[in-house]
Amino acid sequence: MTTPKPKFLAVNDINIALRHRAGRTPGIVWLGGYRSDMLGTKAEWLDQWAEKEGVAFLRHDYSGHGESGGEFRDGTISLWLEQSLAVFLQFSSGPQIIVASSMGAWIALRLLQELQKLGEAERVAGLVLIAPAPDFTSELVEPQLTNDQRRQIADRGYMEEASDYSPEPYIYTKALLEDGRVNKVLKGVIQTNCPVHILQGMEDKDVPHTHALRLMNHLPVDDVTITLVRDGDHRLSRPQDLELITRTVSSMVDRTRPRPQIQ
Prior knowledge:
The protein is an alpha/beta fold. It contains eight helices and ten strands. The protein has one domain (7-255): Alpha/Beta hydrolase fold, catalytic domain (Rossmann fold, 3-Layer(aba) Sandwich). It is 36% helix and 23% strand. The strands form two sheets. An eight-stranded mixed beta sheet has the order 1-2-4-3-5-6-9-10, with helices on both faces. A two-stranded antiparallel ribbon has the order 7-8. β9 (196-201), α7 (209-217) and β10 form a beta-alpha-beta unit. α2 packs across α3. The chain is globular, with a radius of gyration of 18 Å. The termini are far apart.
């Protein structure tokens, strides 16, 4: 399989890179995590599966990520949400299953809320959330900041933290933290009106499995399933993890596919 070249969509003068395969619906929309890109292991794996099954597949890079334009330090949840919504509306049609990893799950939940405001909530047929990190800035980052890191943010507008996944450090800006508070979703009932399946590693050092369980408490009226992987880490990118993701997404596609009516 050859990876198609990216297309670009200008969103407020920033070129957002995306890849789209046509196919049957419900299609798959991939939303990646913080500092990840659409050529990551899970996204590539799902693209191969979607091509084999003839299912539509859409993915993109947020600004400051991968092949998209813009500076990473300028990114906020609101900005990346705006870009994700624009890509979703322009390059997908019909019902879609959003498969989202880490921060992408936060953006997925906010994307659904924005679609509900537009009267297009039915476009989301299901959610598969992998190591979901909604509200991670206020719930997971800010409580762990040292006094020195807080001074860095106050004095220069950002702080850096070593990453286990890249030689480049994580960068948390004052704007990102402030904007995160505006976009919080763990503050009441999250109405999705679609099935939700959460995949969470219990050895996740970045997003503890208790965070996924807390998210479930905010989804009390929906069809929600959680699968805990006892030895799984944050990435969930081992062969057995990828197979689990495939089974979960395939099942979601099957259960949400429109059935032909019997005359």
